[in-house]
Design brief:
The protein is about 40% helix and about 15% strand. With about 450 residues, the chain is of the alpha/beta class.
């Protein structure tokens, strides 16, 4: 597959031919990565996760409740893409309202991993990652609330980057948890990731959480030969499977041999990240999803009165995982439990952020696993708690609002990709991408 960097040098005619080729290949594929084939404008085709608004497109967020909805406006990231010689092309499959780690909660069915028969692609941006890995997309946009870009990228052997919270506009992104969500790139390599990040970043007056300062483009100033101090969290690594631990150990050795300084640090147990995230994320989700009531847009169920309309629409429109998180969110926000759960979780969130900042006083980056295992088989995580634990390494990054990038480093004996993530200080994407370029160079991952 042609890279994003190469594609940007092609003529409009060549890009149109490529778009036609991609659509044909995607329709012939069995991955279930695309759920629509709309295109917007001219330029390099970029696959768009099904929760990002593109004017005139059907956008469903993988949910029955939004089927029939046509976006009346454009997300800022889509406008930014168009200004940089790219276009939105195709809707990528995803977990319903980004709630899941496998895409199995999508109303369109699960996306398959191109590296292993019967394996999940990860989630919630599984369609974006699988399409890039399977060679039916040049690059894609996903969204990351608790690891939803990095985890599927790690499972599929591609690069997935979550920017600092506020670095990329959320205007036009279907909200799951507003204080955690962030749009980011999924690409074939680190350089393409930097190019796509440069294209979508920037301040946006339409987003009240957007950071109001500009920084120079990164892709033209990457330095893979930089020497950095990289921290590893020993207690984190011990919670992963042996195959992930071995890949991590080999990667650390290669980074040391390349001249990077490795320091060993400790952080709170990941169980605090998981508990804090699922209290806060579900609380915000319950509030954000209250707007889907059958009145304003989307699915409208048959009903005799308003109360029945609300009940029937939400019962028929939402899947089981979304219902579960709405109920949990309403519980932690309810009278008598708000202080015990929600307020306490906000306090722990600050402790998690402080723990990261303490490490960054001595280190440029943190190296961590992305997931404790390689991509599981379809149906393996029927227990929701087991699915929630698969995000143990990624949740803390979102709670602290930090930038992070997943880079493939090895494969298991079965040929399943293993990705590791680098984490940087807030708004220090330049160091993050330099470190990722160096990591990509030293591991020399073979697709």
């Amino acid at each position: 597959m042609i890279t994003l960097k190469e594609a940007l040098k092609k003529s409009p005619e060549e890009m149109e031919a490529l778009r036609v080729e991609l659509e044909a290949s995607a329709k012939a594929s069995n991955l279930n990565a695309y759920v629509g084939f709309e295109s917007s404008g001219e330029g390099v085709p970029i696959l768009i996760k099904d929760n990002i608004q593109v004017k005139g497109w059907s956008v469903t967020a993988g949910s029955k409740i939004l089927q029939g909805y046509i976006a009346p406006y454009e997300a800022t990231v889509i406008s930014n893409l168009k200004s940089k010689g790219m276009m939105a092309f195709g809707r990528a499959n995803m977990d319903e309202f980004a709630m899941g780690s496998t895409t199995e909660s999508s109303c369109y069915g699960a996306t398959l991993n191109p590296h292993g028969e019967g394996r999940v692609a990860g989630g919630s941006s599984g369609g974006s990652a699988a399409a890039v890995a399977g060679g039916i997309a040049i690059a894609a946009l996903g969204s990351d609330t608790g690891g939803s870009i990095r985890q599927p990228a790690a499972y599929c052997g591609v690069v997935g980057m979550k920017p600092t919270y506020g670095r990329v506009s959320r205007f036009g992104l279907g909200a799951y948890a507003s204080s955690l969500d962030q749009i980011g790139p999924i690409t074939q390599n680190v350089e393409d990731s930097a190019i796509l990040y440069d294209a979508i970043k920037g301040h946006d007056e339409k987003d009240s959480t957007s950071a109001d300062f500009e920084i120079e483009d990164i892709a033209n100033n990457l330095n893979p030969d930089v020497k950095l101090t990289i921290a590893v969290i020993d207690s984190y690594v011990l919670e992963a499977d042996e195959v992930v631990q071995n890949a991590f150990a080999q990667t650390v050795k290669k980074l040391e041999e390349a001249g990077h300084t490795i320091i060993h640090k400790e952080m709170n147990n990941t169980k605090y990240d998981i508990a804090t995230y699922y209290v806060l994320a579900t609380a915000e989700a319950a509030t954000n999803l209250a707007r889907y009531d059958g009145v304003r847009y989307g699915k409208r169920a048959e009903a005799k009165n308003t109360e029945e309309l609300f009940f029937n629409t939400r019962s028929e429109g939402f899947g089981e995982e979304v219902k579960r998180r709405i109920m949990l969110g309403n519980f932690v926000l309810s009278s008598g439990y708000y202080d015990a759960y929600y307020v306490k979780a906000q306090k722990v969130r600050h402790l998690i952020r402080d723990s990261f900042n303490a490490i960054f006083e001595e280190a440029d980056l943190i190296l961590s696993p992305v997931a404790p295992t390689v991509a599981p088989t379809l149906g393996a995580n029927e227990d929701p708690l087991e699915m929630y634990k698969s995000d143990m390494y990624t949740l803390g990054v979102n709670l602290a609002g930090l930038p992070a990038i997943s880079v493939p480093v090895a494969k298991s004996e079965e040929g399943m990709p293993i990705g590791l993530q680098l984490i940087a200080k807030a708004f220090n994407e330049k160091t993050l991408f330099d470190g990722a370029m160096s990591l990509e160079k030293v591991v020399n991952y073979t697709k």
